[in-house]
């Protein structure tokens, strides 16, 4: 599903260059659950942003489903994001005045073809994440763990091929973290491809593969039994 060949990312600020990613080669197969680990500043979030078509590399190649993303313009990358990729962030990024159902439906508003079963799909996903009885509650009426579950349902509503999560449990207590990770394990068992940035070894233990980064490079690739 994902192939990176010599991927590089350099940020330029005037005459100063900061090389964040240094020639990454990586293949991720469909259905894998990959945890991406490393200390702050090693390039994890930059790599995830490139995979999610939120940023572009300055060197190398990124292919998703065999299609190279690097040569796409903004509109084409936006279409890939909307049709193939779901995002879960540490900050939930929910609309504060919209209820859970409206928040889950949001990505479909920007799709080229609004599906006829959109509301039914959103209701089903809220049921999947255990919030069927909270679909008309606003974020302020939900706990942090419940808000993250809404965010996960929203990430799934466009039926993405790839689910990207950036520290999805970073703002949650231990009980909510346990609930969210059980949900990710269920999604993985259902066949979803997941890449997750985390600092938490207990969270990474749910993944079937752990990549460790240092100085913009992948320095370890561990296959595990979750």
Give a verbal description of the structure.
By secondary structure, the protein is an alpha/beta fold. The chain has one domain: P-loop containing nucleotide triphosphate hydrolases (Rossmann fold, 3-Layer(aba) Sandwich). It has helices spanning 44-51, 74-84, 100-109, 118-128, 144-156, 174-189, 201-204; strands spanning 2-13, 16-28, 33-37, 59-64, 67-68, 85-89, 162-166, 193-197, 209-214, 217-223. The strands form 2 sheets. The chain has a 6-stranded mixed β-sheet with strand order 6-7-8-3-9-10, with helices on both faces. A 4-stranded antiparallel β-sheet has the order 2-1-4-5, covered by helices on one side. A hairpin with a 2-residue loop joins strand 4 and strand 5. Helix 3 crosses helix 4, helix 3 (100-109) runs parallel beside helix 5 (144-156) and helix 5 (144-156) packs parallel to helix 6 (174-189). It is globular, with a radius of gyration of 17 Å.
Low-confidence stretches: none
CATH architecture field:
3-Layer(aba) Sandwich
Strand % is 25-35%
Task: Tell me, rounded to a whole number, the average pLDDT.
Answer: 92
Short description:
The chain has helices at residues 44-51, 74-84, 100-109, 118-128, 144-156, 174-189, 201-204; strands spanning 2-13, 16-28, 33-37, 59-64, 67-68, 85-89, 162-166, 193-197, 209-214, 217-223. With 226 residues, it is α/β, with parallel strands linked by helices. It has one domain (2-90, 108-113, 160-223): Rossmann fold, CATH 3.40.50.300.
């Amino acid at each position: 599903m994902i192939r990176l060949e010599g991927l590089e990312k350099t940020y330029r600020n005037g005459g100063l260059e900061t090389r964040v990613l240094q020639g990454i080669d990586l293949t991720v197969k469909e259905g894998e659950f990959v945890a991406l680990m490393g200390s702050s500043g090693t390039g994890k979030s930059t790599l995830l942003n490139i995979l999610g078509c939120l940023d572009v590399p300055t060197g190398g190649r990124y292919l998703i489903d065999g299609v190279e993303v690097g040569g796409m313009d903004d509109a084409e990358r936006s279409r890939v994001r909307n049709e193939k990729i779901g995002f879960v962030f540490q900050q939930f990024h929910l609309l504060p005045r919209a209820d859970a159902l409206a928040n889950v439906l949001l990505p479909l508003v920007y799709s080229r073809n609004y599906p006829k079963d959109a509301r039914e799909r959103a209701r089903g996903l809220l049921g999947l994440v255990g919030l069927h009885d909270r679909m008309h509650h606003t974020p302020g009426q939900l706990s942090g763990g419940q808000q993250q579950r809404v965010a996960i349902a929203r990430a799934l509503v466009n039926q993405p091929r790839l689910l990207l999560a950036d520290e999805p449990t970073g703002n949650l207590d231990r009980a909510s973290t346990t609930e969210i990770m059980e949900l990710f394990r269920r999604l993985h068992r259902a066949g979803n491809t997941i890449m997750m940035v985390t600092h938490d070894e207990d969270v990474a233990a749910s993944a079937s593969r752990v990549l460790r980064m240092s100085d913009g490079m992948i320095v370890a690739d561990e296959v595990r039994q979750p």
